[in-house]
Amino acid sequence: MKNRMRIVGLFLLLIPAISFADIKIGYVNSNRIMAEYEPVRDIQIELEKEQRKLEIEFNRILENIDSLRQDYERQRLLMSDDRRQNREQEIVNLERTAQEFQMKKFGPEGDITRMQNQKLQPVLEKVQTAIDVIAKERGFDYILDAMTGSILYALPQYDLTEDIIKELKKNTTSNR
Predict the structure, then answer these.
(1) Rounded to a whole number, what is the distance in angstroms from the first to the last CA of the chain?
(2) Is the pTM of this model over 0.85?
(3) For 38-49, what is each residue's pLDDT tens digit?
(4) Do 143 and 122 form a contact (C-beta atoms < 8 A)?
(5) Domain ranges for the chain
(6) What's phi and psi for 26, nearest 5 deg?
(7) Are 143 and 27 in contact (CB under 8 A)?
């Protein structure tokens, strides 16, 4: 996030210097696009249904753990040491299973996130294609995302990456 803001900040500092070059800059509100584009809403509804289904399953696991824990507490004094240890281990194993389930389904690399990325990818490609079309039709040099500060479209002639790499390599070989 800081890098994006630095890029946008540098870009904004350069605007007065490059404004004489007739560079045309536009922006989009990606949050609004995602909120108003019907396929995104359909995907969100589908993901919410799947998430609710998984939350119900997770809550069942938690209820099972809670029930076992209550039974254990009621019968603990009547149990032999072996049986008590077995029950305690059973509860610990179920708690571990619940944590694993939660990470597998809801974690940053979990099923919900993977499903969201998989379903949104084609939609995001369509959005990017629309941005490219509008940028080219209207003669924009850059299109920025007002919500993230990232560059969504830029004319290839403004890409200095290759020049920077060459300069870095030149400086690296001369310093050796």
Answers:
(1) 34
(2) no
(3) 999 999 999 999
(4) no
(5) 2-170
(6) -125, 175
(7) yes
